[in-house]
User: Which sequence fits this backbone?
């Protein structure tokens, strides 16, 4: 059965206060078109769960729709710090919980495996253990070793952007996989955008690159350039020029309002026109 | 012999990578150090194209093309599970570039000031807690050695250095091994695992280093070693592998950095295609 849905129909299902885990990694394969659709939906008090976050976390914080962020990292990599994330951390406008890369994976994995926690040595001897109130230390029942108990993370929704998908919800990832598969399995509902919808036969030619399985997917939508301004290997790279404009716009209320009006309150095709149009994007970003 | 500070640091970093382990390419310095090591004394190293994937690839430092390198060179894609399993099994090495490192080798990339209300919120601990609880060698580099980056006590421990908590919970796994800065090379063989001078870069004195360090350094007895200069072979590998000079970006600031950044971003696709002409995947 086809799971094709519009981005609008997907975000309509996400209520206020939902927890949403987002795939990709910093400037790579973030489901930005879905994130902008979520932003336009007017949902509030979202909890975001990311391993390595970037523009998606920053944009949603900047729009005031986030109440809590679970993260191992939020930044713009070669472009430096994430401006709204940084400001919200410093003014304590949003609740932040610092995890680590593996513990986010372990939390999602615990949810998948239907256990309340998974143990790890990661975090011992660091201040993450002191500021993260969700973690506990436990004693190994077999020896006296102290370990960190990482609680299960149960996201209501996962948002992913992949290279190709079929209409039943199998997804092909060609570049780095990041933790998208864990997000898809752990979330109650997984929505996936893709650069192109292929038929099942075409998709199966990708073999092991079919990483997201349809048993974990509830909705698929075709959005070319759906990761922009982040990159989607091996097709297009991150748009650092646009991200520099974004960072510059966050410094000033008038410019930020203009950015929102132009870039967030725009349907995807309008958005693509406003960032220069498809031909222009191909010449600047295709690899 | 003509060489620059970035090349001296990269060659020094390279000398410390050995064995059949994954080496992550998070920064140009880390990627080039891994490549130099692999092409000289450590052919078994498995150098990655990106922080998390692209095994059996020749790194090319760029701003945005790490994953594309894996594709054009048909590198072996890895999953995050494979990366963290390699870390937990001590089959992974990484040169970490922290915002702060202290005299016991604790490192910080989370926050300047108190974590709850930071003066500057940085990026978050990422995978450093995993590295500093599992690896038998932990390598750090700092580009601007000064009292704000090499400090008595970090504002937040993103990575575990030496101290009572390490002794109680971790033992030797993940303990700091080495720090390379723009002034010298430091190990953690001082009292209670504190930082000690291993060598100073050519032309740098102990007074220079002490003046730029936020605590009193453990001084070596007798003559102080000078960091070996890069060899012609090392320089050749670095320069060939980084034709866009992305490595220079890490040491530049202000307008110079901005200009270089734009040039690299404009030219990096061409550099990739020259080195590895595109092939169709179908």
Assistant:
């Amino acid at each position: 059965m086809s799971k094709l849905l519009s981005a609008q129909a997907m975000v309509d299902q996400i209520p206020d206060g939902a927890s949403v885990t987002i795939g990709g990694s910093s400037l790579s394969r973030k489901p930005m078109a879905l994130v902008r659709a979520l932003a336009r939906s007017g949902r509030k008090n979202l909890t975001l769960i990311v391993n390595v976050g970037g523009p998606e976390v920053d944009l949603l914080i900047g729009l005031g729709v986030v109440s809590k962020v679970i993260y191992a990292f939020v930044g713009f990599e070669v472009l430096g710090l994430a401006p709204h994330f940084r400001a919200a951390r410093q003014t304590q406008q949003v609740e932040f919980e610092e995890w680590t890369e593996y513990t986010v994976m372990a939390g999602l994995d615990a949810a998948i495996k239907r256990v309340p926690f998974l143990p790890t040595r990661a975090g011992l001897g660091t201040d993450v253990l002191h500021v993260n109130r969700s973690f506990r230390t436990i004693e190994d029942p077999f020896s006296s070793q102290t370990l960190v108990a990482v609680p299960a993370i149960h996201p209501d929704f996962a948002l992913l952007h992949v290279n190709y998908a079929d209409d039943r919800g199998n997804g092909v990832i060609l570049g780095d996989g990041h933790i998208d598969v864990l997000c898809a399995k752990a979330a109650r509902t997984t929505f996936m955008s893709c650069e192109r919808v292929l038929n099942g036969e075409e998709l199966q030619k990708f073999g092991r690159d079919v990483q997201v399985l349809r048993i974990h997917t509830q909705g698929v939508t075709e959005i070319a350039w759906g990761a922009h301004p982040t990159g989607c290997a091996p097709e297009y790279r991150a748009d650092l020029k646009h991200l520099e404009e974004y960072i510059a716009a966050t410094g000033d209320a008038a410019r930020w309002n203009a950015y929102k009006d132009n870039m967030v309150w725009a349907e995807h095709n309008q958005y693509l026109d406003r960032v220069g149009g498809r031909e222009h994007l191909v010449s600047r970003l295709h690899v | 012999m003509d060489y620059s500070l970035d090349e001296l640091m990269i060659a020094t970093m390279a000398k410390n990578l050995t064995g059949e382990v994954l080496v992550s390419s998070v920064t140009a310095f880390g990627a080039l150090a891994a490549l130099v090591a692999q092409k000289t004394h450590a052919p078994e190293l498995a150098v990655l194209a990106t922080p998390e994937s692209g095994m059996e690839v020749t790194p090319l430092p760029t701003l945005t093309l790490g994953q594309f390198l894996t594709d054009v060179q048909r590198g072996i894609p890895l999953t995050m599970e494979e990366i963290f399993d390699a870390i937990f099994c001590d089959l992974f090495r990484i040169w970490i570039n922290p915002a702060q490192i202290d005299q016991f080798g604790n490192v910080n990339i989370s926050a300047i000031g108190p974590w709850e209300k930071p003066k500057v919120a940085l990026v978050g601990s990422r995978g450093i807690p995993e590295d500093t609880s599992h690896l038998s060698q932990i390598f750090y580099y700092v580009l601007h050695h000064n009292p704000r980056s090499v400090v008595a006590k970090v504002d937040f421990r993103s990575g575990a250095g030496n101290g009572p908590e390490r002794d109680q919970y971790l033992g030797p796994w993940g303990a700091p091994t080495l720090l390379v800065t723009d002034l010298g090379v430091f190990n953690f063989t001082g009292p209670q695992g504190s930082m000690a001078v291993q060598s100073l870069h050519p032309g740098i004195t102990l007074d220079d280093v002490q003046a730029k360090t936020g605590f009193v350094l453990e001084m070596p007895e007798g003559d102080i070693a000078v960091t070996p200069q890069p060899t012609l072979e090392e320089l050749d590998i670095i320069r060939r592998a980084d034709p866009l000079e992305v490595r220079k970006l890490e040491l530049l600031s202000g307008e110079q950095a901005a200009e270089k950044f734009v040039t690299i971003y404009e030219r990096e696709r061409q550099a990739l295609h020259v080195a590895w002409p595109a092939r169709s995947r179908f």
